[in-house]
Design brief:
The chain is mainly α. About 55% of the residues lie in helices and about 5% in strands. Strand 1 and strand 2 form a beta hairpin. The two termini are about 15 Å apart.
Length: about 200
Amino acid sequence: MCSGNFAKCLGITLIPLAIICILCNTLLFFPGGKVAESSDITDEVFYLGGILGSGVLMIFPALVFLGLKNNDCCGCCGNESCGKRFAMFGSILFAAAGAVGATYSVIVSCVAINHGPKCFTTHLNGTSLNITYPFADGNYLSNRTMWDICDGPGDIITWHLTLFSILLICGLVQIGLCAFQVINGLIGTICGDCCGCCGSS
């Protein structure tokens, strides 16, 4: 497969992943599917790992990868393929930027999953609810009976874990795809697009 075609496949894959990440991060602003005050939302949601890191910052590399196959900047310095080689080198830089954004999203997701969600907990006297972090060290992940501490909003723990887990998985996949493009870009920079540029390789 041509390095340009391979990059296009990566770009096609990255676009829906970026959209999924943006949607997941947006949904996290509605804990348990409920409209809430900003003070009731888990802090890591405001770090925008899914919107900025795995979302917006990933859109740019994806668009660059999609355009590599149709890149027609040929004939520089008397070499028909050097324009394609330069474009492939540029894609390495965009892939690195995308990997950094996805890594940021993965780190935020890991911290959020370990930290747990903000939720309402009943006072010992049973008369009022406080919004707090009842799970400080991630122990709730292996002890589901602790989930009864949370009284909302909605099914907040499942909501929190599901969305941040999706962000984590998507971020890891994005890092892998960007790493593939770094390798593909190096090959394209050194060897040129195997399909050639302007009829030559």
